[in-house]
């Protein structure tokens, strides 16, 4: 079944791990979640099971792939289906040097035919929806016509959904981090894509922080994707189901959302995952709350100690007053 893309959390390396996604799912049932990018090379030659590991509780969940070889991407798209993902997404937006050298990410915006071929091979290989996340351009290829050429070629190959980070990527001279802030956001270009190609699903991404902004974007596009704000302030997600899907959210308080993760955290501890690998992704939960800083400090100072378990999170929770008000955006 096609997942709703009205509200999604962006793929983020080291951030949208299974542990962060599990937290996100305690706060919203309808938000579409994305994995971190996994390269085709890693999936094919590495520990496939480990890279694709997730819990059924995380659904709806999209797997993001990095690669450009049609045969390899087709193979990985097939794996996505076998492992139960709800969508497979191709990364055409990441500007890192490391990935440019392997023809992965934003550099592919200069090769629309290659992306079209890859997408066509993926569609052939799986019944899952195949989507593309990209920029509005790259340095040296920044015109509206070039963006349209990209969209037209890739949609002719069968892609119906484009997730558009509304700034160009500068491949020469800016770091990946700078590439998320320095090139100016051009939301109007994304709106114009929707106007020009009304039959395509156009999702907007980049710099979105509040529900008010989401509503403004939803007046011109089919969905919003939030990255950094959702990670740093995950309680925002507790308002998503009522605000954008007309259903109550699953969480009644920050405390309860975290406690609802305890069985999962224990299960992970039992298989040898260190507490700190999980606790670092819940640091933002009490963002801006009285006691939030003490919560974070307690976790930072204690979660890495050998043998740390759920009792560390219990103690950290005591640093923040309970009860909490009902979910609000
Ligand atoms: C730590 C971090 C890692 C990221 N990793 C990926 C990635 O693996 N794949 C991808 O397509 N984008 C990646 N991005 C970019 C985000 O998906 C998103 O496009 C970008 O952060 C802009 O959205 P925002 O302003 O809402 O954060 C990453 C961003 C951050 C902050």
Automatic annotation (TrEMBL):
<keyword id="KW-0694">RNA-binding</keyword>
<keyword id="KW-0547">Nucleotide-binding</keyword>
<feature type="active site" description="Proton donor">
    <location>
        <position position="94"/>
    </location>
</feature>
<dbReference type="GO" id="GO:0000049">
    <property type="term" value="F:tRNA binding"/>
</dbReference>
<protein>
    <recommendedName>
        <fullName>tRNA-dihydrouridine(20/20a) synthase</fullName>
        <ecNumber>1.3.1.91</ecNumber>
    </recommendedName>
</protein>
<keyword id="KW-0560">Oxidoreductase</keyword>
<dbReference type="GO" id="GO:0050660">
    <property type="term" value="F:flavin adenine dinucleotide binding"/>
</dbReference>
<feature type="domain" description="DUS-like FMN-binding">
    <location>
        <begin position="9"/>
        <end position="316"/>
    </location>
</feature>
<dbReference type="InterPro" id="IPR004653">
    <property type="entry name" value="DusA"/>
</dbReference>
<keyword id="KW-0819">tRNA processing</keyword>
<keyword id="KW-0288">FMN</keyword>
<dbReference type="GO" id="GO:0010181">
    <property type="term" value="F:FMN binding"/>
</dbReference>
<comment type="similarity">
    <text>Belongs to the Dus family. DusA subfamily.</text>
</comment>
<dbReference type="InterPro" id="IPR035587">
    <property type="entry name" value="DUS-like_FMN-bd"/>
</dbReference>
<keyword id="KW-0521">NADP</keyword>
<comment type="function">
    <text>Catalyzes the synthesis of 5,6-dihydrouridine (D), a modified base found in the D-loop of most tRNAs, via the reduction of the C5-C6 double bond in target uridines. Specifically modifies U20 and U20a in tRNAs.</text>
</comment>
<feature type="site" description="Interacts with tRNA">
    <location>
        <position position="91"/>
    </location>
</feature>
<comment type="similarity">
    <text>Belongs to the dus family.</text>
</comment>
<dbReference type="InterPro" id="IPR001269">
    <property type="entry name" value="DUS_fam"/>
</dbReference>
<feature type="binding site">
    <location>
        <position position="64"/>
    </location>
    <ligand>
        <name>FMN</name>
    </ligand>
</feature>
<feature type="site" description="Interacts with tRNA; defines subfamily-specific binding signature">
    <location>
        <position position="296"/>
    </location>
</feature>
<dbReference type="InterPro" id="IPR013785">
    <property type="entry name" value="Aldolase_TIM"/>
</dbReference>
<dbReference type="Pfam" id="PF01207">
    <property type="entry name" value="Dus"/>
</dbReference>
<feature type="binding site">
    <location>
        <position position="133"/>
    </location>
    <ligand>
        <name>FMN</name>
    </ligand>
</feature>
<feature type="site" description="Interacts with tRNA">
    <location>
        <position position="180"/>
    </location>
</feature>
<dbReference type="GO" id="GO:0102264">
    <property type="term" value="F:tRNA-dihydrouridine20 synthase activity"/>
</dbReference>
<feature type="binding site">
    <location>
        <position position="165"/>
    </location>
    <ligand>
        <name>FMN</name>
    </ligand>
</feature>
<dbReference type="InterPro" id="IPR018517">
    <property type="entry name" value="tRNA_hU_synthase_CS"/>
</dbReference>
<feature type="binding site">
    <location>
        <begin position="205"/>
        <end position="207"/>
    </location>
    <ligand>
        <name>FMN</name>
    </ligand>
</feature>
<feature type="site" description="Interacts with tRNA; defines subfamily-specific binding signature">
    <location>
        <position position="293"/>
    </location>
</feature>
<feature type="binding site">
    <location>
        <begin position="227"/>
        <end position="228"/>
    </location>
    <ligand>
        <name>FMN</name>
    </ligand>
</feature>
<feature type="binding site">
    <location>
        <begin position="11"/>
        <end position="13"/>
    </location>
    <ligand>
        <name>FMN</name>
    </ligand>
</feature>
<keyword id="KW-0820">tRNA-binding</keyword>
<feature type="site" description="Interacts with tRNA; defines subfamily-specific binding signature">
    <location>
        <position position="177"/>
    </location>
</feature>
<keyword id="KW-0285">Flavoprotein</keyword>
């Amino acid at each position: 079944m096609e997942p709703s893309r009205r509200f999604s959390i962006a793929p983020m390396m080291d951030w949208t791990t299974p542990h962060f996604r599990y937290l996100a799912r305690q706060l919203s049932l309808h938000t579409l979640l994305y994995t971190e990018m996994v390269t085709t090379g890693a999936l094919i030659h590495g520990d496939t099971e480990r890279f694709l590991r997730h819990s059924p509780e995380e659904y709806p969940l999209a797997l993001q792939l990095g690669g450009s070889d049609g045969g390899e991407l087709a193979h990985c798209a097939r794996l996505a289906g076998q492992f139960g993902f709800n969508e497979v997404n191709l990364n055409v937006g990441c500007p890192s040097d490391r990935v440019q050298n392997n023809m992965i990410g934003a550099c592919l915006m200069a090769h629309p035919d290659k992306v079209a071929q890859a997408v066509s091979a993926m569609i052939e290989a799986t019944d899952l929806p195949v989507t593309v996340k990209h920029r509005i351009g790259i340095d040296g290829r920044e015109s509206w016509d070039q963006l349209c050429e990209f969209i037209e070629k890739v949609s002719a190959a069968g892609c119906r959904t484009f997730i558009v980070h509304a700034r160009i990527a500068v491949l020469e001279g800016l770091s990946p981090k700078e590439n998320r802030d320095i090139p100016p956001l051009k939301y109007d270009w994304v709106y114009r894509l929707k106007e020009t190609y009304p039959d395509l699903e156009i999702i907007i991404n980049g710099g979105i922080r509040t529900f008010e902004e989401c509503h403004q974007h939803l007046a011109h596009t089919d969905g919003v994707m939030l990255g950094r704000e959702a990670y740093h302030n995950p309680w925002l997600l507790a308002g998503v189901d009522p605000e954008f899907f007309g259903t109550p959210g699953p969480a009644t308080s920050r405390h309860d959302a975290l406690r609802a993760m305890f069985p999962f955290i224990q299960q992970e501890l039992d298989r040898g995952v260190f507490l700190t690998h999980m606790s670092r992704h819940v640091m933002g939960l009490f963002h801006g709350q009285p006691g939030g800083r003490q919560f974070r400090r307690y976790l930072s100072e204690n979660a890495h100690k050998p043998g740390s378990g759920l009792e560390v999170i219990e103690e950290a929770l005591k640093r923040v007053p309970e009860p909490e008000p009902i979910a609000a955006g």
